[in-house]
Each structure stands twice: as C-alpha cells, then as structure tokens.
Design brief:
Elongation Factor Tu (Ef-tu), domain 3; transport; 4 domains; MFP_Cation_Efflux; HlyD family efflux transporter periplasmic adaptor subunit; conserved putative lor/sdh protein from methanococcus maripaludis s2 fold; OB fold (Dihydrolipoamide Acetyltransferase, E2P); five-stranded antiparallel β-sheet; alpha+beta; MdtA-like_C; coiled coil
Length: 364
C-alpha cells in the first residue's frame, strides 16, 4: 500500500513539472490592460478620456434637415477661350529666339509680347526660281524708270496719261520686288495672344517646326474653367449649386450646357465664383459635386466622418457613453466638397465622431 502511494505522489510531481513558469496551457484568457483603448466583443470601442484627448477626438450632435440632392461628376480643367490661347506657327520654318530669349514655363507675358520668330525654309530649286524672278523684275524696273524719265522730259508733247501709266508701272515693279524679297529673307513674329503665364512650351532655338504646330500655350491661371460630363441630361436644368470636391472645396458658377452629346454625356461648363480659380492646373482631373434644387431628408456630417468596417460597409462612429463608441452602418450622399448627407443609420441627437475617426477605427 505504501508503494502505491509513493508511485501516485511521484506521478503528481512529474505531471506538474511539465508546465514551467510562462508555459501555462490552460484556457483562461489573459486579463486586458486596465484603462487602455480596446475593441469590445460587440464591436464597440472603449476609449478612456485621456486617450480621447490624445487622439484629438471631436464629435458633432446631428439633427435631420432637408438637404439638397447632389451628384458627383467627373470634370477637367480647361482653358477660358477669352483668357488663354495657343501660339502656333503659320508656316513651316526654323524657330529663332528673340533678343530676350525664348520664354520658359511659368513666365508671365503681356498681350502682344514677342515670343520668337519663325524663319521660312525654302528648297534650293524654289530659292533659285525666286532669285531668277527677282533679277527679271530688277531689269524690268530699270527699263520702266528710264521710260518714265524720258516721258517726263517730253511732258509738253506727251499725253499726261502715258506719263502716269509709266510711273504706276515703276511703283508696281518696286512693290513686287519688295514682296518677293521679304518672302526670301522675311520671318514670322510669334506674339502672345493674351496676358498670362506660359502654361506649356514645346520650343527650342533652331527647331524645325511645321505649319500649325503648337509652340506655346498662354493662360490666365485665375480664369480657368471646369468642364464636367453629365449622363443625366435633365440635370442641366436642375442645378442649384456646384463645388470642386478635390482639396479645399471651391464653389463654382454654372455657365451653361452643351447641345450636343459627347461620348453619350452632356458637357457642363463651370467657372470659379467671381471669375477666379486657385489651386487648379490646366488639364487637371477634378470631381465636381452638383447640387440640384430638389432636397432629401438626412443628417449632414463632414465627409471625413465616413469609415469602412471589415465587411467594406460605410460606417460612422457614434458616441454612446462618455468612454464608449459604437459603429453605425449608414447610407450617405455627397452634399458638397466637404460634407455628406446621412440618409439612413442615424437618429436625431446622435453624437458622430467628425475628427480622428480614422484613428478610432484602427483600435483593436
């Protein structure tokens, strides 16, 4: 009996020796750190007051209101035809720099300012033919001048109309020679069509250019326009306000709509309020939020309050208790470049997290 008890006691000692310190294989969960931000089993987040101040958390109490319906369109920054224009070569030739040099990108120019020259190029046969024509007219001019001089000396016996005809022939030959000489050695001056800045430059001294080739683009950066495409044709008659959604929201003024579809969409033309636009570049793609005169009932919150949950659903965080926040699945529509309208998922009086919601959404 004593042997059996000794064997049983030794087996207990050996069994407990298999699990040393730090190697407990029990099912008991480790306790959470007290006072630390954590995601609770129901999906809500416990966030103590010190952590809220550290993250810069801000909330907003919302209430339902009649908000304008809105639609987001894809647009592009285009040139105002009255405040910009291209500089092109009217003929083929060699590009020459003016005394002050060719303009560079971003350089401000005035209307009519000289930007460069285009010296026409002619082949050997063409130049030979022009030189032969010039020599022929030069000889004819000498003969015409001698004849006009003789007639002038015989003015008392020669009719006045013959003298005048001889003088007109001399003037005609001189004008034709001047025109042909200008064609051989003349050059085309390139001038700025409007006052503004050089938006694009495709020119180098000595470059061979073709007729109608684009060399410079001059635009006024404060008078750019935005062209957006609307697939709902009725939208053109129901625009109440418009905004640029990219960056700082800029209000836009609706100028008008086209009467011809482009890629099955109707082009809409906008410009900045008071005719100004800042922070935009020619050719830039932007998002335009168009508000219609019709309204929808919802809660207005900043766009930065919208988050995504693991199921890729749109959510906002609502403050349920002083240190507890719960996610709410919502449906949203754009209002302008900075706000959205929550049409489903919120109640009046809910306090929605509008600042540092991204950091709150990352608490695990």
């Amino acid at each position: 009996m004593k042997r059996v008890l000794l064997i049983w006691s030794a087996s207990l000692v050996l069994a407990t020796a298999w699990a040393g310190p730090g190697h407990d294989h029990g099912d008991e969960a480790a306790p959470a750190t007290a006072g630390a931000p954590q995601r609770l089993p129901d999906g809500s987040v416990y966030l103590p007051k010190p952590a809220q101040r550290q993250l810069g958390l801000r909330t907003l109490a919302v209430s339902a209101a009649e908000l304008p319906r809105s639609q987001e369109l894809q647009g592009q920054v285009v040139m105002d035809p009255n405040a910009g224009g291209p500089v092109q070569a009217a003929q083929s030739g060699r590009l020459l720099a003016p005394p002050q040099g060719l303009p560079t990108l971003g350089q401000r120019v005035q209307r009519g300012q000289l930007l460069g020259y285009v010296e026409p190029l002619a082949g050997a046969l063409e130049r030979s033919a022009q030189a032969a024509q010039l020599a022929e007219w030069r000889a004819a001019l000498r003969l015409a001048e001698q004849r006009a001089q003789r007639l002038q000396e015989l003015a008392d016996t020669v009719p006045r109309r013959e003298i005048e005809a001889a003088q007109m022939e001399v003037e005609s030959l001189r004008a034709r020679m001047a025109a042909l000489g200008q064609g051989l050695s003349g050059r085309e001056a390139l001038r700025a069509p409007v006052s503004g800045v050089i938006a694009s430059a495709h020119a180098a001294a000595g470059q061979i250019v073709e007729a109608r080739e684009l060399l410079f683009e001059v635009v006024d950066p404060q008078r750019l326009r935005i062209e957006a495409l609307a697939y709902d044709i009725a939208l053109a008659n129901d625009i109440g306000a418009a905004f640029v959604a990219d960056g700082a929201a800029q209000p836009l003024r609706f100028l008008g709509a086209g009467s011809r579809l482009r890629e099955q969409a109707l082009p809409l033309n906008f410009m900045g309020v008071n005719g100004t636009s800042s922070g935009l570049a020619l050719g830039q793609s932007v998002r335009v939020v168009v508000q219609s005169r019709r309204t929808v009932k919802g809660h207005a919150v900043p766009a930065q309050a919208l988050m995504k949950n693991p199921s890729n659903q749109t959510i906002v965080w609502v403050k349920q208790a002083p240190e507890r926040f719960v996610p709410r699945v919502v449906q949203a529509q754009a209002l302008d470049g900075a706000r959205v309208a929550i049409t489903q998922g919120l109640n009046d009086g809910d306090r929605v997290v509008i600042q540092s919601a991204t950091l709150l959404n990352q608490v695990r």
